[in-house]
Structures are given as structure tokens and as C-alpha cells.
Batch of 2 targets.
Target 1
Amino acid sequence: MKRYEDLSPSLRCIMTPGPVEVDPRVLRAMSFPILGQFDPEFTSIMNETMEMLRELFATGNQWAYPVDGTSRSGIEAVMVSLIAPGDRVLIPIFGRFGHLLHEIAERCGAEVFVIEKTWGSVFEPGEVIAAMHSFKPNVVAMVHGETSTGRVQPLAEIGRACRELDALFIVDAVATIGGVPVETDAWMLDAVIGGTQKCLSVPSGMAPITYNERAEAKLLTRKRVERGLRTSEVQPGELSFVRSNYFDLSMLQDYWSPLRLNHHTEMTSMLYALREGLRLTLEEGLEERFARHVLNEKALVAGLTAMGLELYGDPSCKLTVVTCVIIPEGVDGESVRSMLLERFGIEIASSFGPLKGLIWRIGTMGFSCRENNVLRVLGALEATLLRHGVSLPCGLAVQAALDVYEANIR
Ligand SMILES: Cc1ncc(COP(=O)(O)O)c(C=O)c1O
């Protein structure tokens, strides 16, 4: 009989745009005993999680709860629930995850209109608003922080235009939530999807979402109660009921409401992890957390620049939590990444599509976003590049980063 070794994953320094390192307190929370999903102790954990999510999303929305599955499940749940077949959907795309929204909207049977921006930049709000005037969408879906290109899209003006033109505005804030301000109510975002495995630093496996009354009104026109749970007074939904059972938000919200109408079996240990991750985030303070992300980004960028490396993309819309570096000419980017992982235990990311082989992406997210990690990645990258025959000014990178940290203390 084959014998298997004890599971013993290496301790890594993870400097990618997710998944990132997890605070040991979150890991500890995952080891707590299982509670039944209708145990009052568990439902009070559900309610507390909803309360904390409202704070995280900066919203007064009633609905703020996690969908079980990775971030993509939250995106799919929101889109399949709020986009009915035949809806007119505008998707402004400026990287890989905009294409994902396109993909999902098509699968919802929508008439999809796409506008695209060259990777490395974002839209002027006026460009999106002009497209709204010409395509007259009833839904606009776009990404806030594009991890594929390291750019952040300003949303407030687009949100206002969506309200004026009566379109629902769906936003993928998977990469930004907990690391960069996401102002759901102030920016008039109708539905927002966050991620756990990035700036919140909780393992992948849940997708926190929020949506407002405008979104709920549309959802309720598609409401359906599952066969086997219906009572005589509950009517099945309209013809355009949501085509997914697992991702039907009208059913999920009944489960997360005091009704506690049975749906799936909640992911107990993941919910403990999310609750603990949220608790730690709010304990740190959102403003303080955003400032920590800015400081570490500043130190990282100072170090990379001092090393003579060039950053990718339009600096005016750089996403704080992802720094994209152009791979120096003649250098095998994958060989550098392998050496960083194998010799230093540090992981940085490559990229997708047109950027594959051209840039590295370094994340400074959540629990991974710390001074010692930034200094480690700079020192190790310098040594690795020297080993790959790149001539660079030695010893300056870590010093430049230290200067940033020291200036911040003064
Ligand atoms: C901006 C953005 N949206 C969506 C996703 C998809 O998330 P997941 O892989 O957790 O399903 C990612 C993952 O990296 C992302 O960066």
C-alpha cells in the first residue's frame, strides 16, 4: 500500500496579487469546532459577519454577506441574478478580469456591449458615460482594481451616471476590498463583489458581496422559491427566474435573513475565517490599513526604481496593492521567479495574455503587506537578477526602501 507523508506545506513569503499569507489568528479560527448551521451561536456569527461586511463595504445596505466559492462565484452570483436574458450590458474592459465579466454576461444571455482600453491604462469616466449614452445599457459591469495590469479605475462619476441613466452598476472589487478605499454608497455602486484571499488575507473560498435596494428590486422580479421548500402562499418567480440555483441571490438572501430559509450547508470553518479576518481588519482600522498599503507600496517602488527596474503602466492610475515590473530585456522571467521561490521561499507573479513573459507582478496585500516582506523581496530580487547576469546598482534597493520607512517614522 502506498504511504503518504504528513502534509507539511512550506512557509512562503507570498508577494503575489493573491492568494497571500494569512494571519495565524485567521488560521486558528478555522480550527474551531463545527457548529450546526441553524445553531443560534452560528447564526449570530452570520449576523456579526454581515455587520462587519457593511462597514468594510462602506454601506448601509441590508444585504452584505458572503457567497460560498472563490471570488468568481460572487461575481457569477451577482451577474446571473441581476442580468436577465436580453438585458443590455455594457462592459468597459482594461485587463483580464474585465474579459471575465464579458464572459459571464454572455452566459447570462445578455446583449453585451464592450469598450476596451489598452492594457496598462484605465478609462476616463467620460468615455464610459459616452458609451452609456450610445448603447443605453440597463447594467454596467466593471472592475475596480485590475490585478492583471495593476491599475485602478475611478468609479464615482460612472456611478453617478448609472444612477441618472437608470442602469445598475456592478463592480468587481475583489482586489481592492480591505486594501484600497471602496465607497459603495458614496460612489453609488449597486452591487459590489469583494475577495477574501487578497487584501483581507483570508484563504480563498468565500466571496463577500453587497447590493442595494435598486439591485434587490430587480432581483425580486426574478424571485423563485425552491421546489421542496415552497408553501402554498409562496408563488414561483416570473418567467425570467435566475438560471442558477446555487447562485440565486433571491434564495441566498432568504438564507441570510431572519427567515433562514434552507439553501446550501454553510461553510462553517470558512465563515469563522472570514469573521476573524474582518475583525482584524476593522480592529486595525480601514484608514490605517489603507495607509499601511500605501507606505509599503512606496517603499517597494522606491527599491525597484533604485535597482534600475522600470515599472509597467500609466503611473496616474497605479493600483496601490499591485506593482508591475517590466522584465529586463534578455532575462528569463520564469527562471527569476523559480529562483526566488526555490532559493528564497518568495513568490511573485507572472502575468496573463498580452503581458505574459513581459512583466512580473508584485503584490503588497493584507497580511503579506509588511516591511520585512518588502525588504526581503527587494534583497532577494537584486541577488537573483545579479545571478542572471543583469548589471544593476548593487545594494541601493533595500536602502531606498529603508529610507521610505524611516522617513515615515519621523
Ligand atoms: C480583479 C479580480 N477579479 C476576479 C478574480 C477571480 O477571483 P477567484 O480566482 O478568487 O475566483 C480575481 C483573481 O485573481 C481578480 O484579481
Note: Residues 18, 70-72, 97, 143, 147, 172, 174-175, 195, 204 surround pyridoxal-5'-phosphate (CB under 6 Å).
Target 2
Amino acid sequence: MVFKLIIDIFSRFLKLNPKILYIKKNICIVIAGTKLFMSKNMKNYGILIVFNNFPAFLKTIKLRWIEMRRISISCLKPGMKLGSPIYNSRSDELLVPGVTLTDTYICRLRDLGLSYVWIEDEVFTGLEVNEVVSLKTRIATIRKIRDITMNTKVTGKLLVNPEELYDTVNSFISEIFQNKDAIFYLSYLYSYDDYIFSHSVNVCIMALMTGITLGYRGTKLTDLGVGALLHDLGKIKIPENIINKPGKLTVEEFEIVKMHTSFGYELIKEANNLRGSTAIIALHHHENYDGSGYPSGIPGEKIPEYVQVVGIADRFDAIASDRIYRKAYSPNEAFEMCAASGNYYFKENVVNAFLYNIAVYPRGAIVELNDGSIALVLDTPRGYPLFPRVQILCNRFGREDKLKREVSLVDRGDLYIVRILNGDEEELLNII
Ligand SMILES: [Fe+2]
Ligand SMILES: [Fe+2]
């Protein structure tokens, strides 16, 4: 009876799915909930040990609840526990979830150029991350693209098994269809040295989601994905001192960088085993709808729609990522740049389809609302990229909101986000 009561409390009030793990005599161990976080190997769990001599069980409840939250690198402190794996430029796992951070580890994370990581946290509500494409598939593809790129650099030829590339993209597509509710959040995998590879994969996922919204299916969708994966292949022919230049490029240097489009086109054409649109994407992904792009400056309807789909994903990922020569624009700045590009850089329906699939405010971000209160971003409903569901942390006077109220900004016309707090401000709030 007591066990049943406990299970009911968990089911009804805490909205969890408890499972009885062990029952013997007067002891019952219940797994109070299981959620997948970030990757399949990380679990959020709580174990409740209940002794069957009511009411004494109230004194013997032992609950351990592991939660995670996204935290700015500048707020990391030794002793915190990492909540998600960290990868280097070769996609090798550098740090595993659960590791206790030391000063050395924190310096290394800074060196990798990461802006945020996930840590285990017992204060906030757990944030379940429903990845569009699993970390495993993403990492495997980053590796594959790295190998293809390096091989092309050494041999001067694109030697690729097309079936392998089509299979890779098709596995992305089936995961996207399986995770129908998933929205693209800014990746936490970016770092300077692996930018080009994680960039290709991000562009591919965002382009596929946009293509699906536009009604692409079958070969057209697969070709879109392969084109997105190889769109910047021509960069291997640009001298590294220009590609990795930490400052602004000179006019001459920029002219050289622009050549990556035709270099990519030639490499893919010469390979002669990929369908035509792949080379077209490499050639024209920097064209603008108003004719101001390169290499051809072709305007409007002359740029195939599928090229524009890759173009907008490319633009968004580039402005929303840390680069060697500048910090990333904030997610809302990146959103505004993309939203304002309709019929200017990209066709309006392409912009709308793209924005339908992204979330401006990443889960775990701490934001300020227009009434001065501070809130934690929980999740974003599809089609409303600026209006996530948030949890109020403190009111405009800085007083903690003990009720931890959850507010859906879509339903509150009077309430909206004005900015994301930076790391130092999070620390001042003493909410970490
Ligand atoms: Fe490019
Ligand atoms: Fe690119």
C-alpha cells in the first residue's frame, strides 16, 4: 500500500515514470524516473529507498537526483562535475561525463574555444536535450568528413565512395524523422580547430530540416545533405595562413578565400561519381538573392532553391559560432540577421522554413525578461523561436522565486526575453 502511494506521488505530482527496482520484506527501491540527456549513455536518475513501516518511511527517504545545466566556461569552478562529453578536433573523447573539473581541465576547455559546457547540477530542474541527430551519428560523420577532407588535401583528388556518403545522409534523415519534435539548438561542440568539420555537419542537419519543411523527399533530400556536407571542400586549396588568419582579411586575401567555391566545384566534378547538385551547391552557396554574392553574382530565381537552403544554414552557423577572428554573435543577433535576410540574401520562403526549425535561446541559458526578472530557458515550441518556456529564477528585485514558476512566453504577450546574461552576471546572481 505504501509503495503504491509513493508510486502515485511520483506519477501524478512529479510527472515521472517510476519503476520498482527491488522489493524484499519491508524495503522497496524505486527508480523514480529515467530521462536521457545529451547522449544515450547519460542518465538522470533518482533512487528512492522506502521502508515499509509507515509513517517512519518519511524519515528514511533518500533521494539522489542528478540534473544538468549549461554553464558559461567563465563560470566553471574546480570541483564541478562535467555533465556531457568533450571532444577534441579529432572527435576523440577528451573528458567523460561525471569527471570532476580541476584548474587544468578548465584551462584546457578554454583552450578548445568552447563557450559553454554542461555540468551536473542539483539546483535546477533537469534539462532534457532532445538532439535532432544523436551525438554518436554526429561524431561519426565529423570523423568521416575529416578523413575525406584530409585525403583530398593529400591526393589533390576527391576519392569518395558515393554510397557511403548517401548512407550517412540517409541516417541523418531517418533520425530527423524519428525526432519530429526536435529543434536545432546551437551546438556545444564548437571549437576553433574542428570548426570546419563540425560546421559541415551542422550545416547538413539544418539544411535537411529546412528541406523537409519545404517538402523535399527522396533523392532530392539526400543530395541536399551531401551537398551541404561537402560545400566548403574547396577550402583545402586555400593557404592555411589565410583560412586561419586571426584578424580581418585584406581585399586580396578575401578574393583568394572566395575561390574555395570554384575549387570545390572542380574537385567534385572531377570525382565524377556524385549527382550534379552537389557540385552546384559547392559553387553557388555564397550567392545572394539580390545578386551581391559570389562567385557569379547571379540573382534571385536563378539561384536554385536547394542552394539557398544550404546558403542560409551556412550563414547562420558561421555567425552563431566562435571563430578564430571573432566571438560568436549571440543567438538572438544571429536570428535577427537571418530573419532580416528574406528577399535580400535569401528567398523569403527559405528563410521562414529555416527559422521554423531553430531555437534562438539554447536550453539552459539564463535570460533577463522585460519585467526585469531572471529566468532559465527550458525549451522552445516549434515555430516560435523567440518564445521559449522558461522557469523564473528570481524577480526584478533579485529575490529568488521559491516556486520556480514555469512560464510559456508564447502565451504571454506581455512578457519577452530582452537578453541572455553573460557568464559574469550569472556568477553575480549567485545562482550557480
Ligand atoms: Fe563557403
Ligand atoms: Fe561554410
Note: Residues 54 and 272 are 75 Å apart (CA to CA).
